[in-house]
Structures are given as C-alpha cells and as structure tokens.
TrEMBL record:
<dbReference type="Pfam" id="PF01266">
    <property type="entry name" value="DAO"/>
</dbReference>
<feature type="domain" description="FAD dependent oxidoreductase">
    <location>
        <begin position="4"/>
        <end position="393"/>
    </location>
</feature>
<dbReference type="InterPro" id="IPR006076">
    <property type="entry name" value="FAD-dep_OxRdtase"/>
</dbReference>
<protein>
    <submittedName>
        <fullName>D-amino-acid dehydrogenase</fullName>
    </submittedName>
</protein>
<dbReference type="GO" id="GO:0005737">
    <property type="term" value="C:cytoplasm"/>
</dbReference>
<keyword id="KW-0560">Oxidoreductase</keyword>
<dbReference type="GO" id="GO:0016491">
    <property type="term" value="F:oxidoreductase activity"/>
</dbReference>
<dbReference type="InterPro" id="IPR036188">
    <property type="entry name" value="FAD/NAD-bd_sf"/>
</dbReference>
Amino acid sequence: MKTDVIVIGAGVVGISAALELQRRGYAVQVFDRSGVAAEASAGNAGAFAFPEVEPLATPGILKKAPKWLLDPLGPLSIPPAYALRIAPWMWRFWRASRPSRYQALVAAQVSLMQLCQAATERQIADTGGAAMMQRDGQLQLYESAAEFRAALPTWELRRRHGIAFDLLESPEAIAEIQPGLSPRFTHAGFTPHWWNTVDPKRWVEHLAQVFRDRGGVIETRPVRALELSDTGVWVRFDQGAADAGKVVVAAGAWSHHLTRTVGDRIPLETERGYNTTLPPGAFDLRLHVTFSRHGFVASRINGGVRIGGAVELGGLDLPPNYKRAETLLNKTRQFLPGLNTQGGTQWMGFRPSLPDSIPVIGRSPKSPHLIFAFGHGHLGLTQSAGTAELVGALVDGTDPAIPVAPFTPTRF
C-alpha cells in the first residue's frame, strides 16, 4: 500500500486524525511506540468536557501555587528533583495567565470546544459508537458558600458563551442528582451537556478497529526521528525508515522529542495524573463528579468508579509516586461515605501540556508537509475529534472550520 499520510501516535488524537484522513480518501498508516491507547488514552477519566472553556493559566493562579506546592500530595506538586528543569515552562505559564493573554486563550478554547462537540457527534455517528457514551452530565461540588461565590466568575464565563448549567445551593438539591455525597458539599454546578465514555481505552480501541476495518494500518514501532525532504517527510526507526507526503505528529507527551529532530522546539511538559479504578458495585455513581477544591474527579468506568486527577509536574523519567493515588482514594472515602475502596487498580499516566493550556495544531514552520497535533493536557479525549477535522483540513490545504492561528506551533 502506498501511504499518503503517516500519523505518529495511536492515542485518541492520533487515531481520530487517522480516521478523519481516511474518510477524506487518504491511505494512512499509524505508528506508535506502545500500541493503541497504551498511554494517557487508557487511564483518563473518560470525560468529554466541552463546558471546560477556561484555561488552567488563569489570572492570579500563581498566587495559589505556593500553598499547593507546600503539600507534596496536594492538587499540584513539583518534585524537588524536577523544579529547576521546569522553571522555563512555569515562566511561560505565568505569562499566559496575564489578563490580556487570558482573554485570547478563552476565545480560542471556546471556538475549539464548539467545533469539538459537533465533531464528536459526527465521529460517534460515523463509527457506530453511541452505545459507548454516557450522557449524564457533570456535578462540580463546593464545600461552602464562600467557595461557591469564588467560583461564580467561571460559571458566568460559561453563561456568556452559551453553556447550559444549573447552580444548586443546598445538599438536598445536590442529592436529587447524586445521592450518597457527604453533606459537607453545600453548593454545586450541574452541566447537563457533559458526557463520558464507558471506558476511554475501549473507545479508542473501537475507533482503531474501525480504522483497520476500512483498510488502515497500525504498527507498534517507536519512531526515533523525522527527516524533511522536498516532497514529504521521512520517519526514522531504530532500523529502517518510511516516508509519506504528509506526516502528523500526535504522540502526546513524547511529541516534542520528535519535533526537536527537525529543529522545532515546543515547550511541552508532562502533567502526571494518578487514579484508582474500583470494580462494579463500589458506589452508585450516577454521573461525573468533580471535587473542585481538591483537584480530582470520580467517574463511571465499565460500571465501576475511577478516582483520579491532580497534577504532578515531574516529566517522563521520574518513577511514579502512588501515594498520590492513595491520597485521592482516602479523600474520596470521606466525600462518598458509602464507597467500597477494596479491589482497586492504580494507574499513572502522562498528560501532554503546554504552558498556555491550549494545544498545538498546525504546520511545522520547517515544512508544510509536517503537521503537529498535540499538547491537549487534560482535554485530549474532549478535543480529539475536532482536532482531527482541523488536521484533515491542513492536510487537504483547505480552510479549517475555525481559525488555527491561536494554535500555531510558532506562538512560543
């Protein structure tokens, strides 16, 4: 088979891009270092979080960081061994949180989320995936009136952009949506147009199987370097190489290692996320629940409960600290008094994150044949189908559905 496009990465973004390019008539081959959904796409919370339009880099966020960083098991941590290395990324994060930049980031995120919601519906219909979706909404919890009031600007931001929600101001109102929560949660916001997949790994495997059934090829084979030519891009392995007219880099937290081989230095960092997945029967969880102040969530996965989140900025090489997963589980026992915490499986994965909280989607400045699609942070699943449609337009050379200038690789 003559390959028109090579996609590097078999996570949800890469597989979605491969499917979309295949739909547009291209012969596509996918290479991945570990296999389909073997990294962050396997163990995330399974959420399509379209209402989450506010970037992490918000004005004033660094005033909170010192308090968080004092707790090594808190919602944000930087291991001491990694602190110096991440300093340039944190400086860019601070610059992105300035009010003028923040407004532009919100606008970019809103336009991308609107595209992604519509694109995901198209993807579900095209691949027969409706049975793998749970359209029950999300409950964002607060432990006091003061905490709730502090969050109201975020809810007002969502209102201005047409995102539907209901605000709940009593434990009784919350219990009507999700029984069994601790009464410490006095206020909440309910977003009905949030949905989850029954299992993010199964969803990506489903998409990959559709891609294969339609003639696509996926190989587990680490890509070591890229090499540009006048007519395309060569992909170099430990042994051998392959070439195509277009190459899409969608390798998640490993993407920047590949871009450096052609001279593109993208400030990608790794948010290490932790979770524990409990078996069916652990708790009667009826929708996705976010524990706002604590930085983690509970979601339904295959009839069980996945407790995960928090941010550890520790790179790809440091060993996992599973005490973070244990801390989240212990907190959840207090928040969900009836939770059975026995029989859980721990996991740690790498979220590919850029300092301004939006992904890179665009052509390499070094070559029009090389296209980047990575850095989605917590929102890879959410933004995968929309990113795929933008990649399709970039490969076609047609106008994308939304402007891609905010996502350009040259913005740093």
